[in-house]
């Protein structure tokens, strides 16, 4: 009989932390894991239980849905990204925000696991949204995929310094978006 396994996304969702945090625990040897032939990290259920008991970490509800927010001022981009997400993660709850202020409202009331964030938006730009997330612990630590139509010098370094994960330049290929989703969420569809 095989034992249940958890992806890094599953663990991040249950512990309400960023996937990067889970990956760091694995890299530091605090949480036992193995890699699948496809390169994804998996944790045996017994190792997960031992980890949360050892570090006295509360576990969130097991049935919580994957929640993803798309923040972009271009309706067509939001729609295209939503279609890719809904095909890849049909059980996910997807939210949209046309500007940074609206994104902040959603981040404040929902447990967002992933934020697909445009840099240039009216009102609050993507960098200001990332600053807001870092300053407000109630927003959790969502994984972030940054999208932009403007490639600037040192943009990737600035995105990383603000807590962003992958950077996609518009127009991007759908397969790039799928790979970024898998990379940031740590789970295939």
Strand order of the largest sheet: 5-4-6-7-8
When the domains are counted, the total is: 2
The CATH topology of the largest domain is given as Rossmann fold
If classified by CATH, what would the architecture of the largest domain be? 3-Layer(aba) Sandwich
Task: Report the strand count.
Answer: 8
Query: How many distinct helices?
Result: 8
Q: So what's the CATH class of the largest domain?
A: Alpha Beta
Query: Gap between N and C termini, in Å?
Result: 25 Å
Residues in helix, %: 40-55%
Listing every helix as H and every strand as E from the N terminus to the C terminus, the arrangement reads: EHHEEHEHEHEHEHEH
Rg measurement, Å: 17 Å
Shape assignment: globular
Strand percentage: 15-25%
**What structural category arises from helix and sheet content?**
alpha/beta
Characteristics:
8 helices; alpha/beta; three-stranded antiparallel β-sheet; Rossmann fold; five-stranded parallel β-sheet
Describe the structure.
The chain is an alpha/beta fold and 189 residues long. It has two domains: 5-54, Multidrug-efflux Transporter Regulator, Chain: A, Domain 2 (Orthogonal Bundle); 67-185, 3-Layer(aba) Sandwich (Rossmann fold). 42% of the residues lie in helices and 18% in strands. It is built from eight helices and eight strands; from the N terminus they run βααββαβαβαβαβαβα. The strands form two sheets. Strands 5-4-6-7-8 form a five-stranded parallel beta sheet, sandwiched between helices. The radius of gyration is 17 Å and the shape is globular. The chain starts with a strand and ends with a helix.
């Amino acid at each position: 009989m095989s034992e249940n396994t958890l992806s890094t996304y599953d663990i991040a969702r249950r512990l309400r932390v960023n996937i990067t945090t889970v990956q760091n625990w694995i890299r530091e040897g605090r949480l036992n894991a193995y890699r699948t032939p496809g390169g994804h990290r998996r944790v045996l259920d017994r190792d997960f239980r031992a980890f949360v008991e050892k570090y006295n970490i509360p576990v969130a509800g097991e049935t919580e849905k994957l929640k993803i927010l798309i923040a972009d001022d271009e309706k067509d981009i939001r729609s295209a990204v939503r279609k890719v997400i809904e095909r890849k993660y049909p059980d996910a709850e997807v939210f949209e925000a046309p500007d940074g202020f609206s994104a902040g409202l959603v981040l404040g009331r929902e447990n967002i696991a992933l934020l697909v964030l445009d840099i240039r938006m009216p009102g609050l730009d993507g960098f200001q949204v990332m600053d807001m997330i870092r300053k407000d612990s109630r927003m959790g630590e969502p994984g972030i995929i940054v999208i932009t139509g403007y490639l600037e010098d040192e943009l990737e370094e600035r995105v990383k310094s603000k807590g962003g994960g992958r950077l996609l330049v518009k127009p991007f290929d759908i397969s790039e978006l799928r790979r970024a989703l898998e990379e940031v969420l740590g789970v295939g569809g």
